[in-house]
Write a structure and sequence with these properties.
Blueprint lengths: L2 H11 L5 H12 L1 H18 L7 H14 L5 E3 L9 H15 L7 H6 L1 E3 L8 E7 L5 E5 L4 E3 L2 E3 L3 E4 L11 E6 L3 E6 L5 E4 L3 E6 L8 E13 L11 E5 L2 E5 L3 E6 L5 E8 L2 E5 L2 E5 L3 E6 L4 E6 L2 H5 L5 E8 H11 L3 E4 L8 E7 L4 H10 L6 E4 L2 E4 L1
Parallel strand pairs: 2-24, 3-9, 7-9, 12-13, 22-25
Antiparallel strand pairs: 1-23, 3-4, 3-8, 5-6, 6-7, 8-11, 9-10, 10-12, 11-12, 12-15, 13-14, 14-17, 15-16, 16-19, 17-18, 19-20, 21-23, 24-25
Helix pairs in contact: 1-2, 3-5
Length: 390
């Protein structure tokens, strides 16, 4: 293997490769001879650094290729664990092992399978596209896969809902509500062209049709939403405002994420691109890209931080990306997506921190098994829709 490509592989596995380097590596591996060389490289490192019977290198390789093409890497690095305090070379192998373990097609040993305890008739499944639409007359419409809905200027295919602009001189604004339950997600295209992704356990209030030239206003009643706002210059200069609890976010045309769950005391607003002006009580703040405002509702404080935007918005693209998050925080996110209840029998593990990237269609048993295999928890048990962590 040429040294430069070995370096690229290590960069990829340590999540430090540039897009250009990823493209170079992907192109190099596509060559049959290089693919064979790479397989030998993976097999050698597995044999030296990790005790595993008959690892399926072909599946590992295929998984790596898919990840390179997606420009994603599956990293699972524990904090405060002796193994991960060693040199970068050892860390690389740990990441390779992580990728292997996160591959849903890989086999888990019989000993691990025997330790998984599942009791009850209810099954915990990953979330899916579903929501409840509340029309202006109070009627409730269930939106889900396999069900279509059409009415005047609104239509849904079960995965998303879209509104068409209505040319009207009437100045009466009618509102719809879109409520996404636990275990759900949904996309809505508003009549002005603004795109909104709603996360699990979220509720959005919005006009069926906006009045041309007047401020466009919506309310995130609770939950999490990602906004891609149609520019004001396309709507007679009308700006766009998002209200949430005591917060007001004013934009001209930009992308940002608001996280404001009912069971959390902090409101997180993350700017991806453009600019927004945030108002909270007597405070006013302008955010620039990669900044996040955090409003603590308990003590009425407002702080600004620079964040890794990907970690904050990856949920809308089918990925959970966690960085320096405690197991308690991570389980709160997963409990909403999998519509489950999590109980910590051992409270000492609640604050264990690690970095991890999970695909949202993974089975919860697989995720919990991986967490256990990395030594974060000793055991877990699933009883209907409740997960017990020990």
């Amino acid at each position: 293997m040429l040294p430069n490509y070995e370096s690229l592989i290590i960069k990829y596995l340590t999540n430090s490769a540039t897009i250009l380097e990823l493209e170079m590596l992907a192109e190099w591996i596509e060559d049959p001879l290089n693919k064979k060389t790479f397989k030998v490289y993976v097999e050698t490192h597995y044999a030296i650094y990790y005790s595993m019977e008959d690892p399926d290198i072909e599946k590992v390789l295929n998984r790596l290729l898919v990840n390179i093409r997606k420009e994603k890497s599956f990293v699972y690095k524990l904090k405060n664990k002796p193994f991960f305090r060693y040199a970068a070379a050892v860390l690389v192998i740990g990441m390779m092992i992580s990728i292997y373990l996160f591959n849903r097609d890989n086999m888990v040993s019989d000993n691990f399978e025997e330790k998984i305890t599942t009791i009850g008739n209810e099954v915990i499944k990953p979330g899916t596209d579903k929501a409840i639409l509340t029309l202006e007359n109070g009627s409730l419409i269930t939106l889900e896969k396999g069900k279509s809905f059409n009415r005047q200027n609104v239509s849904s295919n079960g995965k998303e809902i879209r509104y068409k602009k209505i040319e009207s001189k009437k100045e009466i604004i009618k509102y719809n509500y879109l409520t996404v339950p636990r275990g759900g997600q949904f996309f809505v295209n508003l009549s002005d062209g603004t795109k909104v992704w709603l996360n699990s356990e979220s509720k959005l209030k919005y006009p069926v049709n906006f009045i041309e030239g007047e401020p466009r206003q919506v309310e995130l009643v609770y939950g999490e939403a990602y906004f891609n706002v149609s520019p004001s210059n396309m709507h007679g200069g009308a700006d766009f405002k998002v209200y949430n609890k005591s917060q007001e976010v004013q934009v001209l045309g930009t992308e940002f994420n608001i996280k404001a769950y009912r069971d959390e005391t902090t409101i997180y607003t993350t700017l991806v691109e453009g600019s927004i002006v945030l108002r909270y009580e007597d405070k006013k703040l302008k955010l620039i890209p990669n900044q996040q405002s955090q409003i603590n509702m308990d003590n009425n404080t407002l702080v600004t931080k620079t964040v890794d935007v990907y970690n904050e918005i990856s949920w809308k693209d089918g990925i959970f990306s966690f960085e320096d998050k405690s197991l308690k925080e991570i389980m709160k996110v997963l409990s909403r997506w999998y519509d489950m209840n999590v109980v910590f029998k051992n409270v000492e593990v609640e604050e264990e921190q690690f970095i991890g990237i999970l695909e949202k269609d993974q089975e919860i048993e697989e995720i919990l098994t991986n967490i256990r295999n990395f030594g974060i928890i000793n055991e877990f048990k699933i009883i209907d829709k409740e997960v017990l962590l020990d």
